[in-house]
TrEMBL record:
This is Flowering locus T. Belongs to the phosphatidylethanolamine-binding protein family. It comes from the Eukaryota. Pfam families: PBP.
């Protein structure tokens, strides 16, 4: 295994901004249509408009998982005052299934970055048990670490992120 300096989550500052270093121990596959999300890949807002298919691996069928999707660069990478913006929260996902088998606590909100290149980070946690998870009162200023601590989730077991910017690229005015 390559050193942590080659870890794309560290290179992309996902480790540090969103989560602490961890060992990836459960397969996590995220696909939008026919595009699989790989760390640091570029996806356009039109590619990510619809909720992705998310498959969780693992070999112990008794395990259940929680998935969060956050944008640590909201509203802009140079001024991330809403860090982290919560785009999706699903709990009680059984191992070897898809997110659709879990409990959607916060519905999927499509990424719509207005300025700069944003990172969108999927983080998967193994739950100790089924428990009632409450939706936060708002999506902005969600904190993945505090959330994991509050619900006793421990370190992540998987994470993947993609980059996304406005369809037209950067610069120019936003037309609504």
């Amino acid at each position: 295994m390559a050193g942590s300096s080659r870890n794309p989550l560290a290179v992309g500052r996902v480790i540090g901004d969103v989560i602490d270093p961890f060992e990836n121990s459960v397969p996590l596959r995220v696909t939008y249509g026919n595009r699989e999300v790989n760390n640091g890949c570029e996806l356009k807002p039109s590619h990510v408009a619809n909720q992705p298919r998310v498959s969780v691996g693992g070999n112990d069928l008794r395990n259940i998982y929680t998935l969060v999707l956050v944008d640590p660069d909201s509203p802009s990478p140079s001024n991330p005052t809403f860090r982290e913006y919560l785009h999706w929260l699903v709990t009680d996902i059984p191992a070897t299934t898809e997110v659709s088998f879990g409990n959607e606590v916060v519905s999927y909100e499509r990424p719509r970055p207005t300025s700069g290149i944003h990172r969108f980070v999927f983080v998967l946690f193994r739950q100790q048990c089924r428990q009632r998870v409450y939706a936060p009162g708002w999506r902005q200023n969600f904190n993945t670490r505090e959330f994991a601590e509050l619900y006793n989730l421990g370190a992540p077991v998987a994470a993947v992120f993609f980059n996304c910017q406005r369809e037209s690229g950067s610069g120019g005015r936003t037309f609504r």
